[in-house]
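A brief tutorial aside. Many learners find it easier to grasp structure tokens once they have seen a single protein encoded end to end. The record that follows does exactly this for UMP-CMP kinase. Read the sequence first, then the structure, and try to relate runs of similar tokens to stretches of the chain.
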Amino acid sequence: MATDMAEATTAAVLEKKDNGVMPEEKKLHVIFVLGGPGSGKGTQCEKIVENFGFTHLSAGDLLRAEIKSGSENGTMIENMIKEGKIVPSEVTVKLLQKAMQESENDKFLIDGFPRNEENRAAFENVTGIQPEFILFFNCPEEEMLKRLLNRNQGRVDDNVETITKRFRVFSESSLPVVNYYDSKGKVRKIDAVKSKEDVFENIKLLFAPFIQEKEEVEVGSLN
């Protein structure tokens, strides 16, 4: 009964949202950023935003913001999380879609998403968008573990047992997404073992086509 009500609420909330694909006049450039915990993708996302004019979107941040807003959608999300249920992929995707539609930008880094094949399918079905490419931070678990244990961010989940579980979830759920896009030639693999500076030098080569576009926008805004 409770499950039926939750599904009905989810359907009702989704029905109120725009079910169409992105407007054709706004061509969006979407790049998925994936990598295991401690691979350094968060640091590099900041550099990409600063240097190439992308907007950084995090599915987790959007979910938390929606809960904080007190909206009907936010209440539904909060209740599902409290009950230990997984928030439907369509709900998360529609938050991402809304953020992109409301942004004045047309270039987006979507960080830590899709987390699994269900996320991927929902994103493509709801938005009609194919990512430009997937930026994959390839880093051995031993190195990621060392980084997570050494960093000083006060995270309570940074202990060996919990970190190992996070590695397993990434391997079982997210790597199949990477493999899917790799089969389509869309994965750009970064050696994340290197220093932050060297990693970004490699990233700059991938994002070079976006430099001219960023400069053109900035010049246009001055006219």
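Self-check: Residues 27-206 form a domain with the Rossmann fold fold (CATH 3.40.50.300). If you spotted this yourself, you are ready for the next section.
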